[in-house]
Structure formats: C-alpha cells, structure tokens
Design brief:
single chain, three-stranded antiparallel β-sheet, 244 residues, mainly beta, 3 helices
Length: 244
C-alpha cells in the first residue's frame, strides 16, 4: 500500500510537470470562447474556463457570440479571434445549423460526430442501404422504414407433381419409331400369334418418324432453390443520426 502511494505521487508529479511544459510550449493554441463584452472597436472580452481575456478581431461580434480564439505561439497577451463566427443567430452554433436534430452524418472515420461537434448522436443504419422516401410506393413511403434481406430463395408451394396446361407448353417435338413386319412364309412372334403360318422365316424393318407435340398435358417436377444474394453494388461507411 505504501508503494502504491509513492507511485501515485510520482505519476501526479510527472503529469503536472508535463502540463507546465505544454502551457509554456511555443505553439499556436486555438480554443472556443464566448464574448462577454465589447471593449472597443476591434477588441472584445472573452471568457474561457472561467477566466476572462482580451482578444482582437477584424470582424464585428456581439455579446454572447461563441468564437474561435487563437493564442499565437502560446502568447496569451496577443489573443485574436479567428475570422469566423460560430454563432449565426439566436446563440446557435454553426454546426447545429448544418446538422440539425434528425440529420444523418456519414464518414469513413469511426469518430462519432458527438466528439467532433457536440449534441447526441447514435449509430444508424448498420448493415443497411439508405433509400429515399417515395410516398407513392408502400415500401418506401415513410422515413426510417426498414425491409428487404441480403439473401433470398425461391420455394415451390406445391408438393409432388405439377401439370402444365396446353397453353403453358411451348412448341416441341417427339421422336417415335414405326415397326413394319414383312412376313414370308410364317412365324410366331411370341406376343403375336399368326395362326396356321409356319415360323420358319420372317423379316422386320424399322422406320423413324418425328411428330410435333400438341395439346397433351405434361408432368414436371418443381423443386426449391438455395439462398441467393440480393445485394446491389455497395460501399460501406460509418453513419450516425443526431437525436439531441
């Protein structure tokens, strides 16, 4: 326990020393502050972290405006207001005008706009493609309506065999063979008995014919398909929606 106390004191000392070095470092520091009063033309009193400073500006500002202030090379006696007002009207920051509640923010960086601008933002549309509202289409007639799937399958609602009607059958052909028997003397075919005719000799020949199919019903087996992709070409990014 005593060692932990020593370590904590050492860490605190190091952090304090590092902060002093940062405060004295010769680099430009920019921060956001509020104008509390007008000193004279081109000079304003600003408040930052509870302390008040004097800053110059080439633009006209009003009391209550939020502005960006720069301390050049960390020289706080030379503060100046950057040439951009953060408040446009009714004490509303510019970013709130650009991103009002309900706005969708898209970025290829995963930093939440809540850290960049303020307000309350929630992750939005994960794994989904945004589509514009179309009031004449029941699929897309209101905001934040969801639907669709990344895969689909075709199923056959009828089990067994399905008989096609004549109108559903395209033109097609069937092959067949006609058998002609030439009998010389006589013979017994087994299935066909030619009575009183000798079986000592017989000749057969075959003839092929093609017939166009007509109005006969056909039975076809219809099965189910596996899952297929429904995805259009896409590109991913991070999306947030401002809620407050």
């Amino acid at each position: 326990m005593e060692n932990q106390t020593i370590i904590n004191k050492l860490v605190a000392t190091i952090l304090s020393y590092a902060q002093k070095l940062i405060d004295k470092a010769a680099f430009d520091r920019t921060f956001r502050a509020r104008i509390t009063s007008i000193i004279s033309d081109g000079k304003y009193q600003i408040e930052w972290k509870g302390a008040k400073y004097t800053a110059k500006s080439s633009q006209t500002h009003a009391v209550g405006d939020w502005v960006y202030v720069c301390a050049p090379t960390n020289q706080w006696e030379d503060l100046f207001i950057l040439p951009e007002k953060l408040i446009v009207e009714n004490n509303t920051p510019v970013w709130e005008k650009i991103y009002p509640i309900g706005t969708i923010y898209m970025s290829v960086n995963d930093t939440s706009p809540e850290k960049l601008f303020g307000g309350k933002w929630v992750s939005w549309g994960s794994g989904r493609v945004p589509v514009g509202v179309n009031t004449s289409d029941g699929n897309f007639n209101s905001v934040e309506k969801t639907g669709g799937a990344s895969t689909h399958a075709h199923t056959n609602p009828v089990t067994g065999w399905t008989t096609l009607t004549v109108d559903q059958i395209p033109a097609h052909k069937h092959g067949s063979e006609n058998w002609n028997w030439e009998v010389s003397g006589g013979f017994n075919t087994g299935n066909y008995d030619v009575t009183g005719v000798s079986t000592n000799r017989g000749n057969a020949c075959a003839q092929s014919s093609i017939y166009t199919g007509g109005g006969q019903g056909h039975n076809h087996s219809m099965g189910n398909t596996g899952n297929s992709s429904s995805l259009p070409p896409y590109i991913t990014c991070y999306m947030w929606k401002r809620t407050a």
